[in-house]
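In the previous chapter we treated chains in isolation. Here, by contrast, the input contains two separate entities that must be folded as one system, with a combined length of 1006 residues.
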Amino acid sequence: MDRTLEETYDGLMADTKEIADLHHVSEILEWDQEVMMPPRGIEARSRQVALIAGVMHQRSTDPRRGNWIAELEARSGELNDEQKAVLREIKRDYEMSTKLPPDLVQEISRTTSIAHNEWIKSRAQKDFSIFAPHLETIVGLKKRVAEIWGYAETPYDALLNAYEPGATTASIGKRLGELREKLVPWVEKIAAAPAPRRDFLTKNFPIEQQKKLARAAMEVIGFNTDGGRLDIAVHPFCTGTGGDVRLTTRYFENEPFASFYGVLHEAGHGLYEQGLREDALGTPLGWSSTMAIHESQSRMWENEIGRSRAFLKFFESRLQEAYPTQLSGVSIDELYAAINHVEPSLIRVEADEVTYGLHIALRFEIERDLLSGELSVSDLPAAWNKKVEEYLGITPKDDAEGCLQDVHWSIGALGYFPSYALGSLNAAQFFAKLREDVGDVDGKIEAGDFGEILEWLHTNIHRHGRRYLPDELVEHVTGKPPAADDFMTYVAEKFGPIYGISS
Amino acid sequence: MDRTLEETYDGLMADTKEIADLHHVSEILEWDQEVMMPPRGIEARSRQVALIAGVMHQRSTDPRRGNWIAELEARSGELNDEQKAVLREIKRDYEMSTKLPPDLVQEISRTTSIAHNEWIKSRAQKDFSIFAPHLETIVGLKKRVAEIWGYAETPYDALLNAYEPGATTASIGKRLGELREKLVPWVEKIAAAPAPRRDFLTKNFPIEQQKKLARAAMEVIGFNTDGGRLDIAVHPFCTGTGGDVRLTTRYFENEPFASFYGVLHEAGHGLYEQGLREDALGTPLGWSSTMAIHESQSRMWENEIGRSRAFLKFFESRLQEAYPTQLSGVSIDELYAAINHVEPSLIRVEADEVTYGLHIALRFEIERDLLSGELSVSDLPAAWNKKVEEYLGITPKDDAEGCLQDVHWSIGALGYFPSYALGSLNAAQFFAKLREDVGDVDGKIEAGDFGEILEWLHTNIHRHGRRYLPDELVEHVTGKPPAADDFMTYVAEKFGPIYGISS
């Protein structure tokens, strides 16, 4: 790069970092709102958040950025691979922000604001017909968005691409289709097997003890509290990045493992954010990848690691010390089976790690068919229920526990669901490779020695930032294309023994 | 107002509210930094705060605001009194922000940044000569600022006016001169009188009990926790406004009343912010007045009310319950005398409410003489020590406990000190009037019935926002010009009996 090109690149980086800083200001305002703000602060806070969003939008869509991007594009031959990736990421964001006409953006905002309220009513009254016309409008608007953003084969591609760049209806359809085909028979067998003992989980587990254990788990896996916090919020989340990463959870006296695994999950997100390249924070190289990658990190720490027998063994003495009467007479095998209990259920957010993917597969299929026109909004409830029966063997008694259960469609977030399942598949695929590379992973977990595991994740995943597209990253790290087989192997090896099923 | 003028006025109001929202975003970022942020977050936070300050500055100095102001000025005859006050406040802020050339602003910023570091060094080494040349430069820069801002009689007027609009060197000099003259003999007499018993205050007072009492005091005087919080910070402060007002304090096991009165003080600030006109929040009519008024509120709740015998009586049973052994055998009179102990001391921030004003009088005189050229920087330490001896009867053993003790000059905050003392004088002047208007104030305090007192403050002070200049407000509320006599009456009536002194 000559001096001029370098100046352009540096100018774009400095500007990008400032937009990132504004993003993190928003995150702090929102964290504060959920965790600290007194109730009467909501009115001013809403204005503040909207104001910062406005400043961010203005900065993100400033034509100056467009000029920088065009200049770098014209001379992209002079950029190295990292710089090319940075340009690719910034260009996509810029185009997605600038391509949509303000009229359409406003129309979507207005429509979803109404639709969200109608969805709440619709769900409360268990009457899909209230929400249906609004969903119809949203699907129409999303089709217009897709036409403007552009797509390779089908409009749904454009929506998926907004969440998982590079992914298509075909690529996700193939992966989730494979998952569904292999998973359904497994879920059938598990549902037919005798359920493990779980009586002790409904006892009273003091919240102070839960807090102690959750914090211990978070710290022992490597979450750095000099650069992070753990607090309480109604809806658990992880926010922030770099030197200021904040986790939240909630505690219920009769659900001791909800907070324990909830914190491990959020800490998994947190370790990703703490593991980003410090010198690149605020730019695509120091920015976490899509949700399909982020969720791979949280789920790996929660499920592959946290819900392993080795992790339970490592924590056994602390658990027994914290809950001497509650866990009295409960063997490690019983505890292991109980916290890994699988049971088909109707509500996605309560699903276990095995059935979860089926909840997503059906949503993906329905979104795909709504966008292609193969499914009409009026036929949605019937299609939903048919799939639930087919995949999970159970039937919603009404649409509130069926197609009205999730908020996503009401706020226009079509194309968002798949990432949840891709996160599980990626977790298994990454973890299989991690097992190969690190060696004696179970032994290390049982010894509470997470250093090498975390370092592997830092090196192979976290420190790439957005250098690769999510599917590229999976292939780059694991040496094979994203698939569902590692996840199925994980399911077979873990749940086969628990439920006495041979694959 | 016709439609066009109304549109201009409304446009200016909407813009002003957005700038206020940005201000409150900064406040949340700073609160979070002091109270919540993990240590490694500091680097990003500093950038975020600077970024929001930049956005605020840009918005505050936007020529569009200048046009609105000019348009309203040209037709000010059509504005009502409230609108005229709003225009006066907005115009002053706009002019102060826009008049200084960016070069000078940068030079001040650069100079004070260095000077602050040199002041730290200077204080640590107890060597004024390190800081002296930097203070010299700062005084020079402040003179240039004063010339640009303009003044009636002397450059120091311009600096005072930045903190207390309408106040002048002459008006403040008269008031603080009167205070000093009357106070010095009082302090002499008190210093000569036998000190009250204070041995019990050095016992161990568990922090949990301190927290409970401080919170109880805060709530009982009317601080609304639906619209506020109390947390811990190294340097206690109050921030926020309207429905989100946040107080902080700190706890030391051997200083039980530091947190108790610290919280009452901050809650006094907080009640002011919570008492602003909701419909005018973010505009001058819903914005608290200067520090001379704000401190009058905090000091009134802390001193006039909190340190009264009536308040102690009201809290006596809770204090005895919280500290049964520590306060065993301590009578209410002994406690009252102990928490109102007066003793000349060298450090301003540790001074009691009687001697405090003398610390400020001497700083005011020195600033005034530095600005007028009557005092040179090199003669400052000698002048300081002479005044301390004259006013307080004690001598600093070095400049660290003399003229190097405060941060203010090193950051260029010349003209800021007087407001601290004006706050005490205003508190006494307001409280004397409150006593007249409300009636049986001591009885109400002793009964824990603060409703009428708070309502009086809301009605007479809080709900005016910046409708009046600070001195105007004092006169408007109390019916007489700002003076020192009510404060002296308060001193005589309260401390005379404690120290057996008749005035």
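The first strand of chain B starts at residue 228 and ends at 232. Chain B touches chain A at residues 18, 21-22, 24-25, 28-29, 32, 36-45, 47-48, 51-52, 55, 224-229, 240, 242-244, 281 (CB under 8 Å). Compare these points with the single-chain example from earlier in the chapter.
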